[in-house]
Request: fold
Amino acid sequence: MWQQSAVQAAHGSGAVFPPPGGAAGRPGGHGPRTVRVWVARRDAGAVAHAGPMAERPAEGAAVLNLVWVGLVVAGVLVAALHGHVQTVTTAAFDSAKLAVETVISLTGILIFWLGIARVAEGAGLMQALTGLLRPVFRRLFPSLDPQGPALRAILLNVSANMLGLGQAATPFGLKAMQEMQAVNDQPDRETASDAMVTFLVLNTAGVTLIPATVIAYRATAGSQNPTEIVGVTLAASTCSTVLALTLDRILRGRRRRRG
Amino acid sequence: MFVHTMDAVSRWAIPLIFAGILIYGLIRKIDVYSVFLDGAKEGMEIAVKVLPYVVSIFVALGIFRDSGAMALLARGLAPVLHPLGVPADVLPLMLIRPLSGAGAMAITAELLRHNGPDSYVGRLASTLQGSTDTTFYILSVYFGAVGIRRIRHALVVGLLADVLGFVLAVAFVRLVFGVK
Reply:
């Protein structure tokens, strides 16, 4: 299990609704004793409730645990072997201090960017983008009704993600999954439909136009030109997304569950 | 030409977005400043939530690097990584990126601080961070929400998208900014 709201907030997406009836196998845990905070947001206000949960780390968490603990332990071992084990302590204190400074510097720009993003949302920029994307998405999701609620939710989710409005994107994404599940044509209700897989591939390959948080961190780190990476990021992101969608189309026919 | 275009995009993107969105807000007759403040208020919440991640990663990486372990790893992997133009510093980032969004962001932040944001490592880390997403997390949230257990080729393609993103990021950053 994982700290949902924190992870969500940190990588730009916002609210998550508790899944109906719980779900199996949630990777990305951050330790056996963590407080799970569910934050659900609609347009008006925020509702949050927290409960303590003690859980075994789930699948994906194993690697994360290994890497993080490995970094610390490897560092201690190497420092000890080289006879300067005190560098561990110095590094720990200096790094912790630097971490706090970094976050504080970041908060300023973050606050500004969140304001801009909210204006975009409020002014209906998402709707405008949705209109532009609709023809493309009808081709991407041939199994979905072009006027139906599933495609509409998908369009809203992608538009929000593109504008860096993670807060708005996730609820739409969850709605899209629900609508797609309603028209899931697979033999059983627990297998992903073609549209679902395409949607997930689209989401994980990344559709953000402006990597706002990265730019903010660059600025606070003293970059001469914080936005210089926008072009290359967009290029790499777009190309990988297109390739991924192509791969999805190829694998779709081969991996369809039959009977 | 490609380089020039990407550079222009980078320079114009933010100013146009700031001005454009605010003007669009005025045109659509919303209370721009008030709405802006509503969004802005969430900034502190996010900062507080992000802090544990950032501290944990900064400390782990700081220990790993200052002890000399990072240099050892770099030397060991140099024959493989050097021809590819991948510095050892970004390896933790590539490993963590599909697993934890906050962790990856923290690693990127640390690399930006330590190596400088305008260094090759800094630019590469920034691009790696922005061109991929947290695959496991996204899959688990979206599929879990509707009770899907058989995800077919979603994970395979998702991870391949991450790898592709990394490869392209290295290629483009080298192309546009040069190495070191």
Observations:
- Residues 180 and 194 of chain A are 10 Å apart (CA to CA).
- Confidence is low (pLDDT under 50) at residues 1-55 of chain A.
- The radius of gyration of chain A is 21 Å.
